[in-house]
């Protein structure tokens, strides 16, 4: 990396379009950062458990369709808006709207995106805290000889301890915002270099181990045999929401990363590579977890604890399981960290550019808000577990509100803005796809299939087609 390449941290200086904004120092760094954002708890923690809750194969198929028809076109649009707008989500959308002589109100899309990011981060750090808490547990060899019941009890004991959860959550927040306030590029690059291949290899090892349990076939069947009687309208909405969550869409994170993008990088190629890696990691996680779940008589619908209950059983039985367990939870934590960093970046860029505060100050302000919100999620698992709205705890509500409402809404507005407000000429120039047919395909998806897809899923979920 050349010395004069500007770090993303220097973005604080870029408080107006007159100042040169910082950029990724290479395409490779941009790819790493985008993949680091996409691959996270969504793949290893959330995908397996929502697949379990929604009956398996049919859900996975709908999720894959959402990635293809909605996620990929939208991810390209977010990169494009960021690169063209050269600002935080609100500033970028405002600049493009001005250029297109469209209503000033479009900028609110960016504002909502920034706030959605903060809401997601407030519970994301709690789950990242679980991964952090399991590092010393693995190190002390506490997984040895666990069975399904003992492992469930161990996880339940963690959730029942609000102080421990709050401690871990606070630590995650400090590390995330500490990194962010220093400038994310250096930290991101260094951690991504060994984290991505490392997590991939460990997942492969775990899939290999899962194949010896005798339940690999059952897991394959569960994951890939679609039984459409098992999926509901709500399930389809969850699949859609997850395609946003896992690709970091609908809240400006990829817009900000796109805004640090130098001209000339292929948006289409990067998008496909990010989506492929992300989906690969999620499927590997499923293949590692479900055989263990079947082998240990655990329920597929057991909820958010799935990965934290199943994998420790494997670490307790397999050769070198103690070492592998420690490494796994460290990698999972780092994967969560690179995602958490991207979740905070829209707010940080927004605060620094709109209110001209310094990066550390922006980190401090968002940190305070996030910490207070995260307490609600921490208490959802113990003191406030009975306090529910429609059967959902505070944590569940945050998850539902963001993944199933705010992100799809943000995504819908983003595609409508790119496909119908901006002119075709602007978009064609900004996206930089040389191949006319390829551009035509994306343009068609963006204008028609993607927005209609999101709408149909919404209407389906509220029961309009029943
Ligand atoms: N994609 C990440 C994951 O799967 C989570 C994430 C990071 C995210 N940045 C985001 C989700 C922005 C929504 C929006 O774990």
Number of domains: 1
Bound molecules: tryptophan
State the end-to-end CA separation: 56 Å
**Total E-strand runs:** 0
> Pairing-aware structural class of the strands and helices?
mainly alpha
Rg result: 21 Å
User: Shape, please?
Assistant: globular
CATH topology: Amino acid/polyamine transporter I
Counted by DSSP, the helix tally is: 18
Provide a descriptive summary of the structure in words.
By secondary structure, this protein is mainly alpha-helical. It has a single domain (3-461), classed as Up-down Bundle (Amino acid/polyamine transporter I). Helices cover 74% and strands 0% of the residues. The protein contains 18 helices and no strands. It has helices spanning 27-38, 41-53, 57-85, 89-99, 107-139, 148-159, 162-182, 184-210, 216-224, 233-246, 253-259, 267-295, 306-317, 321-354, 359-379, 394-421, 424-431, 436-461. Helix 3 (57-85) packs across helix 16 (394-421). The N and C termini lie far apart (56 Å). 55% of the residues are buried. Residues 1-19 have low confidence and may be disordered. Tryptophan binds at residues 37-38, 40-43, 117, 120, 245-246, 248, 251, 253, 339, 342-343.
């Amino acid at each position: 990396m050349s010395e004069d390449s500007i770090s993303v941290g220097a973005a604080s200086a870029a408080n107006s379009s007159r100042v040169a904004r910082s950029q990724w120092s290479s395409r490779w760094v941009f790819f790493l950062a985008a993949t680091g954002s996409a691959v996270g708890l969504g793949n290893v923690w959330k995908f397996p458990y929502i697949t379990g809750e929604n009956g398996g194969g049919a859900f996975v198929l709908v999720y894959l369709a959402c990635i293809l028809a909605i996620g990929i076109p939208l991810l390209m649009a977010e990169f494009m808006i960021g690169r063209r707008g050269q600002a935080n989500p609100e500033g970028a959308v405002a600049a493009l709207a001005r250029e297109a002589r469209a209503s000033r109100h479009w900028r609110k899309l960016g504002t909502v995106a920034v706030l959605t990011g903060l809401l997601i981060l407030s519970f994301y750090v709690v789950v990242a805290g679980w991964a952090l808490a399991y590092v010393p547990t693995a190190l002390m060899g506490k997984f040895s000889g666990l069975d399904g019941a003992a492992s469930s009890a161990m996880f339940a004991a963690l959730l029942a301890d609000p102080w421990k959860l709050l401690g871990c959550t606070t630590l995650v927040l400090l590390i995330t915002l500490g990194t962010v306030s220093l400038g994310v590029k250096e930290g991101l690059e260094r951690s991504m270099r060994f984290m991505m291949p490392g997590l991939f290899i460990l997942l492969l090892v775990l899939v290999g181990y899962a194949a010896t349990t005798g339940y690999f076939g059952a897991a394959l069947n569960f994951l890939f045999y679609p039984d459409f009687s098992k999926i509901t309208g709500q399930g389809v909405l969850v699949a859609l929401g997850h395609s946003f969550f896992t690709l970091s869409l609908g809240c400006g994170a990829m817009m900000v990363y796109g805004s640090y993008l130098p001209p000339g990088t292929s948006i289409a190629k990067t998008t496909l590579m990010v989506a492929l890696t992300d989906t690969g990691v999620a499927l590997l996680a499923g293949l590692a977890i479900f055989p263990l779940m079947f082998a240990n008589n655990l329920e597929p619908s057991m909820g958010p604890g799935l990965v934290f209950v199943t994998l420790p059983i494997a670490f307790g039985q397999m050769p070198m399981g103690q070492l592998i367990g420690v490494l796994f939870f460290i990698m999972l934590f780092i994967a969560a960290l690179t995602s958490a960093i991207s979740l905070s970046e829209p707010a940080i860029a927004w605060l620094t550019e709109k209110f001209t505060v310094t990066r550390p100050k922006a980190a401090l302000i968002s940190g305070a808000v996030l910490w207070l919100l995260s307490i609600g999620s921490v208490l959802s698992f113990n003191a406030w577990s009975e306090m529910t709205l429609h059967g959902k705890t505070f944590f569940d509500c945050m998850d539902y509100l963001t993944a199933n409402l705010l992100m799809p809404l943000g995504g819908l507005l983003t595609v409508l803005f790119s496909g119908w407000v901006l002119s075709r000429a602007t978009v064609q120039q900004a996206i930089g796809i040389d191949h006319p047919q390829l551009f035509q395909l994306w343009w068609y998806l963006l204008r028609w299939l993607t927005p209609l897809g999101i709408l149909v899923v919404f209407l389906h979920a509220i029961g309009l087609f029943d």
